[in-house]
Design goal:
Layout (H helix, E strand, L loop, with lengths): L3 E5 L6 H11 L4 E5 L11 E4 L5 H12 L4 E6 L5 H10 L7 H8 L1 H10 L7 E5 L14 E5 L9 E3 L2 H17 L5 H4 E6 L5 E9 L2 E10 L12 E4 L5 H18 L4 E10 L2 E8 L9 H7 L3 H9 L12 E6 L5 E7 L1 H5 L4 E6 L6 E2 L10 E5 L4 H13 L2 E5 L13
Parallel strand pairs: 1-2, 1-4, 2-3
Antiparallel strand pairs: 5-8, 6-7, 6-8, 9-10, 9-12, 11-14, 12-13, 14-18, 15-17, 15-19, 16-18
């Protein structure tokens, strides 16, 4: 029997069904470890429910559920469960990233320190206490970018151009941290970095036996200059020339080594500055959202299938030659969604493969920096980069999201004066 795939995923994760389908196609049994309060359906996959906030108990439950069965790999779908996945793999003596390395991907300040010690390029940065934002001299100068220490997806990330904007940004970020459930140091501090000018890219790769293997580079053709940094368009293959692409990949691989990452998927965000590529974010997981579908469009295998094979030390050769792109539909205005118009016209746009709307009528739309989700996704695949990008923009222009105001008042407590 092939070894068991142990999948650690938060409740409600859309990745669970994708991974179970990929494991089935590869002929591998799967055990889903989740924090769901509801029973997992045994016809879909065997599962065990644990409390992610009690890692010792969770680890014991998982090891008991595995029993004497051979395990091929352990993988985590999201940042919230990477640490537990690492501990499970460590107890099973499987290749994995250490808990210390995983922690660096979840704390921006610690990650920056590790990069600086390793001699990697990094912007000027400092940790600032929210309660002392007005009194703290900003050594990086302005413009600067204020970031939560432990949130993802550009949530709470704000560009500031002077000290008054810095104080206002900290005041705005504080309730975001509170609502996100952060506690301790990460609740009371933010990271302030020097703003970097230059185009931004996402790099998807995989580390097998300590060696970084590139899956693809995504271009982000719209400039991300602030004040907020909502990602929109991802397109592949990149328009970078060979030398620039190699420099970008080499820097991501160096940064991954500086974190101590040794095995598994890598999702990195970087900017190409006048001094060379500079890492912005590094996660020990695959690309988030539905964007993983672009891997399947371009390499002919699902991202989940590639990841399972890679975790088992058998990463297939991939060559992303076909053009593909996605628009993560941004939330522009706050309000209650009433309806979506123009969906049929958007779907009929030449080269558009699919339009997915992930927010139902009646739900509140919350833009960045407070928001943490997208309205949905538009996928396109055309003969060229430019045609793919044009198709995405054309389809988006046909959509109209009708909202009404949300008159509910929120009490916000702050400590910043």
């Amino acid at each position: 029997m092939p070894g068991l795939v142990v999948l650690v995923a938060p409740s409600g994760s859309y990745r669970i069904s994708a991974y179970t389908a990929a494991a089935s196609e590869l002929g591998r049994p799967i055990l889903v470890v989740s924090n769901s309060r509801h029973s997992l359906v045994p016809e879909i996959a065997a599962g065990v429910t644990v409390d992610f906030d009690d890692p010792e108990s969770a680890l014991e439950q998982v090891l008991t559920a595995i029993g004497a069965r051979p395990v091929a790999c352990v993988l985590a779908t999201d940042d919230t469960c990477v640490a537990l996945g690492s501990r499970i793999a460590e107890n099973l003596d499987l290749p994995q990233n250490s808990a210390a390395a995983a922690r660096l991907t979840q704390r921006k300040d610690l990650g920056r320190e590790a990069l600086r010690r390793a001699g990697c390029r990094t912007p000027g940065f400092q940790v600032v206490a929210l309660a002392a934002a007005r009194q703290t001299p900003i050594e990086t100068g302005y413009p600067a970018v204020v970031k939560p220490l432990a949130l993802a997806g550009s949530r709470g990330v704000i560009r500031v151009d002077d000290s008054e904007q810095l104080v206002a940004a900290c005041r705005r970020i504080e309730p975001i941290l509170e609502h996100a459930g952060l506690r301790g140091f990460a609740r009371e501090h933010v990271l302030v970095e020097a703003y970097l000018d230059g185009p931004e890219y996402a790099v998807e790769g995989f580390i097998v036996d300590g060696r970084f293997r590139l899956l693809t580079i995504f271009d982000k053709p719209e400039p991300l200059t602030g004040p907020f940094f909502e990602e929109t368009y991802y397109l592949t293959p990149s328009r970078l020339d060979a030398a620039a692409a190699a420099a970008l990949v080499d820097e991501v691989a160096r940064c991954a080594a500086a974190y101590g990452l040794a095995h598994g998927p890598i999702h990195a965000e970087a900017r190409l500055t006048a001094d060379g590529p500079v890492l912005l974010e590094l996660a020990a997981r695959t690309i988030g959202g539905q964007c993983g579908q672009l891997i399947e469009f371009t390499v002919g295998q699902s991202l989940e299938s590639v990841v399972i094979q890679g975790m088992c030390g058998q990463l297939p050769e991939v060559a992303a030659d076909a053009c593909a792109g996605v628009l993560m539909i941004p939330i522009v205005d706050r309000g209650i969604l009433q309806r979506v118009e123009g969906l049929t016209d958007a779907l009929q746009t030449p080269w558009v493969r699919d339009v997915e709307i992930h927010v139902s009528p009646g739900y509140e739309l919350l833009p960045l920096p407070e928001g943490a989700s997208y309205l949905g996704f538009i996928f396109a695949q055309a003969p060229s980069f430019e045609a793919t990008w044009a198709a995405l923009k054309s389809a988006h222009s046909k959509l109209r999201f009708v909202t009404r105001p949300n008159w509910a008042l929120e009490a916000r407590a702050g400590t910043i004066s």
